């Protein structure tokens, strides 16, 4: 029973990284922008957050620095694709490669660094309750805040004027522009906010999930988060559930190894990516359903008339 409690806890922990990044990418895509640079953003943010805590000892400064680094990189990407007309897919791939290279180079001196002792959490004094305690009440605050963020995004997108405007910009930017909305600024704000969430995911990875800095430590999670937005049909609550599903698949390999299952370790490592491919293959069998849920102007540039 204890093993299953730890598996559930690990699932929530791993799912938080994916959920934060995927929710950020969902905000981007609701505004009509595809950002393939999540992997690079998360790597740079992981390094910046880790380095900040090494030098200051403050986790919250580390998370803020990671989110700030993500927002800065995303804003640069937004300026390229929104104002300068760069191709969104090419610019996103360039950002991913740039982030991977920059973090590897700048992070050489931090590979051997160690963080201060990590805080331990026991919410409401329930951490020792059998099964539920270790499974649900010993997590970092960001695990719970991520779930609340997904619910807040549901409310924002479908219950507020700001959400309606954001969705209008992603569906029909020319119409939104004709109504007087500053489409390019709204898209830039969405891209920057999404980048901040990707940065927060990267910082969580190096400060709470691992915690350490290693070259390439994001290990494809940015790409899985990108796939999650399609898997969830651009709905925040489904993103959260999908993130926990993929987080569970990721942790399942370690659980099976702990139970003595004699599968090749390479095959177990492949499980999350095989699951991603399988899900996308199943979804792509119904392109009409994808088009019905996908923002109509996703990936399309906007040039204001006049």
TrEMBL record:
Gene Ontology cellular component?
A: plasma membrane
How is it placed in the membrane, per its record?
Multi-pass membrane protein
Superkingdom per UniProt:
Bacteria
Keyword Transit peptide attributed: no
UniProt-listed Pfam families: BPD_transp_2
> Main location per UniProt?
membrane
**CDD domains this protein is in?**
TM_PBP1_transp_TpRbsC_like
Membrane-crossing residues? 6-26, 33-54, 60-84, 91-111, 141-158, 185-206, 212-232, 239-257, 263-283
Fetch the InterPro entries from UniProt.
ABC_transp_permease
Is Transmembrane helix set as a keyword in this record?
A: yes
Keywords of this entry: Cell membrane, Membrane, Transmembrane, Transmembrane helix
GO MF entries: transmembrane transporter activity
Give its localization: Cell membrane
Q: Which PANTHER family match?
A: ABC TRANSPORTER PERMEASE PROTEIN (PTHR43370:SF2), SUGAR ABC TRANSPORTER INTEGRAL MEMBRANE PROTEIN-RELATED (PTHR43370)
Q: What is this protein called?
A: ABC transporter permease
Task: Give the source species.
Answer: Ottowia cancrivicina
């Amino acid at each position: 029973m204890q093993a299953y409690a730890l598996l559930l806890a690990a699932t929530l922990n791993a799912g938080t990284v994916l959920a934060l990044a995927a929710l950020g990418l969902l905000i981007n895509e609701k505004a009509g922008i595809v950002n393939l640079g999540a992997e690079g953003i998360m790597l740079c943010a992981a390094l910046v957050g880790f380095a900040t805590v090494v030098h200051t000892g403050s986790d919250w400064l580390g998370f803020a620095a990671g989110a700030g680094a993500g927002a800065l990189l995303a804003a640069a990407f937004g300026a390229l694709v929104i104002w300068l007309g760069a191709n969104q897919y090419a610019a996103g791939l360039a950002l991913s490669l740039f982030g991977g290279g920059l973090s590897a180079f700048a992070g050489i001196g931090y590979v051997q660094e160690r963080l201060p002792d990590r805080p331990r959490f026991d919410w409401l004094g329930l951490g020792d309750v059998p099964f539920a305690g270790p499974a649900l009440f010993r997590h970092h605050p960001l695990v719970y805040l991520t779930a609340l963020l997904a619910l807040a995004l549901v409310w924002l997108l479908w219950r507020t004027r700001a959400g309606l405007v954001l969705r209008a910009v992603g569906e029909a930017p020319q119409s939104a522009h004709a109504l007087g909305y500053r489409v390019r600024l709204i898209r830039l704000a969405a891209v920057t906010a999404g980048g901040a969430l990707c940065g927060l995911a990267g910082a969580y990875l190096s400060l709470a999930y691992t915690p350490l800095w290693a070259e390439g430590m994001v290990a494809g999670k940015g790409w899985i988060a990108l796939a999650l937005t399609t898997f969830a049909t651009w709905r925040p609550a489904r993103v959260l559930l999908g993130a926990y599903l993929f987080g569970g698949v990721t942790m399942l390999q370690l659980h099976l190894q702990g139970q003595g299952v004699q599968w090749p370790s390479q095959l177990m490592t492949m499980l999350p990516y095989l699951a991603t491919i399988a899900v996308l293959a199943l979804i792509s069998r119904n392109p009409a359903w994808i088009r019905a849920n996908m923002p109509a102007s996703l990936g399309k540039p906007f040039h204001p008339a006049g």
